[in-house]
Design goal:
Distance between the termini: 152 Å
Order of helices and strands: HEEHHHHH
Shape: elongated
Number of helices: 6
Helix content: 55-70%
Largest sheet: 2 strands, antiparallel
Length: 240
């Protein structure tokens, strides 16, 4: 006589020596009120709210287990669009900066009839003025670029964005669009700071070139003056 029913409980025999057991409920017994120690006051296996479903202020809804991934992915898509907007600007940055410098020279009067030295001086002043304007623009954009908790997004993009989105969803009423707008604005401003910094480097190199050009013009002027002086002395000697 088989003792399977006695030892296995409800089951289905699937082979000569194999059985499929029925589900067995497992439930921990509640500890006696007087018991103390590490597990004192702890939930049992089947007690308490399931993970992520309690009513705490920072818990997610069980209906949206991947909400943070979705929200951060949206932020990433927005950043990609902004990067594509600025890609053309960066690729053409040198040419556009030189064109801006040429226009500044023209406004300063470098196209007027001037000696080589005077023209170079005007061009230097125009370049210095343009660098000064870029510096002013840089300072004007810094507050916006550092508007996410005083940090630049280039260094803490994920962390700063997550914090901004998290806070926007815990306002009354929740509004993630406010966070996205703030993140995009700060990111654009950070890219502008990078653009301005690169432009100032380009202009600084042009200023160095103009300084060398001025030195060369002054040397040529000195040589020309010396030659003219010698010629005058030679002519005066011949007349005597």
């Amino acid at each position: 006589m088989s003792n399977a029913n006695k030892y296995l409980g409800p089951h289905i025999k699937t082979g000569p020596n194999s059985y499929e057991l029925a589900p067995i409920p497992v439930k921990a017994e509640r500890l006696n009120p007087g018991i103390e120690g590490f597990f004192s006051g702890a939930w049992g296996l089947n007690e308490g709210p399931h993970r992520g479903t309690s009513s705490g202020p920072v818990k997610l809804s069980p209906l949206t287990p991947f909400i943070w991934d979705d929200l951060m992915h949206e932020r990433s898509i927005n950043s990609t669009y902004i990067d594509s907007e600025y890609a053309g600007l960066y690729n053409n940055l040198f040419a556009s900066t030189i064109a801006e410098l040429d226009y500044a020279k023209q406004v300063a009067g470098a196209n007027h009839p001037l000696s080589p030295i005077e023209k170079t001086k005007v061009e230097q002043k125009a370049a210095l003025k343009l660098i000064q304007n870029k510096s002013i623009e840089y300072e004007a954009r810094k507050p916006s670029a550092y508007s996410l908790y005083g940090h630049n997004q280039f260094f803490l993009m994920k962390e700063l964005s997550f914090r901004k989105i998290f806070e926007s969803l815990h306002t009354s009423p929740p509004d993630a669009s406010v966070a996205y707008t703030a993140i995009d604005t700060a990111y654009r401003s950070a890219l502008d700071l990078k653009r301005i910094s690169l432009q100032m480097n380009i202009l600084a190199k042009q200023l160095e070139h103009l300084a060398n050009k001025r030195d060369q013009s002054e040397i040529e002027a000195q040589i020309a003056n010396s030659t003219s002086t010698v010629d005058e002395k030679f002519r005066s000697l011949k007349m005597k």
